[in-house]
Amino acid sequence: MHFTQPTKKLLWVTWGLLMVLTAATMFGGHADSQTSAPIGPLWVAGVLVLTIIKSRQILSVYLNLRASTFGWRTFFLAFILVIALSILAPYWAATL
């Protein structure tokens, strides 16, 4: 395992990407909507994909998981996917 600190440039670029993804998540989740109508399962899936990308960036750069072994990276990504699927499942079940 080769440990390296993320550079300041990488941290700033990642922060910018996280801000863009946060804005996209808010737009996708209809955060600006005046109604309380629920969003559909496709929108929920889209928001969760953005959330998975954000989570992966945070784990990879800020928690420096990119310097760890393949097993740790796979474990954390699988954990995030399990959480996302457990959130998405009720939305899909409600449409059946």
Sequence stretches where pLDDT stays below 50 over 5 or more residues: none
Mean pLDDT: 90
Radius of gyration (CA) equals 16 Å
The total domain count is 1
Helix content: over 70%
What would you call the structural class?
Answer: mainly alpha
Describe the structure.
The protein is mainly alpha-helical. It is built from 3 helices and no strands. It has one domain. The mean pLDDT is 90.
What's the short story on this structure?
By secondary structure, the chain is an all-alpha fold. The protein has three helices and no strands.
Name a few traits of the molecule.
0% strand; flat; 96 residues
Which SSEs are present, and which pair or pack?
Blueprint: H1 8-28, H2 41-62, H3 70-95
